[in-house]
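Hi R.,

Here's the chain you asked about this morning:
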Amino acid sequence: MDTVIKVENLSKKYIIGHQVKEPYQTLRDTVARKSKKVGKWLLHPFLSSSAQSFSGTEEFWALKDVSFEVQQGDRLGIIGRNGAGKSTLLKVLSRITEPTEGRISIKGRVASLLEVGTGFHPELTGRENIFLNGAILGMGKLEIKKKFDEIVAFAEVEKFLDTPVKHYSSGMYVRLAFAVAAHLEPEILIIDEVLAVGDAQFQKKCLGKMEEVGKEGRTVLFVSHNMSAILNLCSRTILLHSGGIIGEGTTEDIVRKYLEKIQEGTEQDISSIKERRGLGRVRFTRISFEDDKGSPLEHAISGQPLIIVLEYQSKNKRELHNCRVSVAFNNNLGQALFNCSSELTNSEVLNLPPTGKVKCIIPKLPLSQSNYVINVFLEVNREIEDWIQGAVSLNVDDGDFFGTGKQYSKRWQGKGILVPHYWTTGELI
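And here is the predicted structure, written out as tokens:
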């Protein structure tokens, strides 16, 4: 088979600036300091303001010395924890950003779906964006017309086809964006975690389409936290950690190595996580776990109370109105188990101070012994501010969930949700 992607010693460096935090000063001090700055600017007009506001810079290598090859028709999975470099790698492969070092050779037309609505013009309608994206991929008008009805049917947006896409919901954006990327016949299809926005039925349809694309001899690169999807779709997978490849091989072997890796410990401080979605004006900074007495927990116990403490910070000092906070539990394959949402349980609208903490209290943890992955979500006034998939992992130890003195895992091998239930008997008449 032909090699369609060849990556050699690829590295990507970012320069991070550190801003000086000045101590509290009086109004007179501020006026005097501003006057000095004006005087310096008059004397040195070419001195940039940004150079004065930062005390130093730091190099951050998002990718370091990454090398691999992809053959035509490969369905390659790319996995790793938050901050491993997955999204940066896809952006470099999609020519969105240039590498700092190394070489990339790509043979064939590439279509990328990295973020919701990537490549869409918000003022254009869905119909116009289909033709625009096709033109960007180098396709002629007649060629796009042949695929047009198929794209619209797949995306299920017929009623909104002549509506500007800025009015689309995130789910509609994703459906149309994926349909365009998959149906306009690129030789290489690059997909990031955006499929998580769609509903379960649409995700299943997308995975089926990607499998179909691979069988047609086209190449798929797929990044996901959903290990079940990776196992079903990808024949080969690479594992990234801290910007480098630490595993490459069959998907089964690499997923097993990844699951062992995420059980080594949890990252409680999540302020530095870069792989997150939302406007970012309010962000989660830390996650911790407590029992019902407020004591910190390293491991949760089946059937016992669990309190999840989410700390957050806002960029302004205004109260946050009409908030929705949710915590979702996935198994270690990335499959959804259950979701705890303030919108469902709180009878009144949730308003939050600009900086603080919010607690999710689970009176009786319905999970058997295993390792679980937690996603966190924050919405303010119907706008997504922060959404982190795979924010932390949580180890759950076996406990007496049913109050019978018996532990579930000692009897059954299955792992997942425990459901309160009871049995009765009766005589047939």
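One quick note: The first helix runs from residue 27 to 43.

Cheers,
M.
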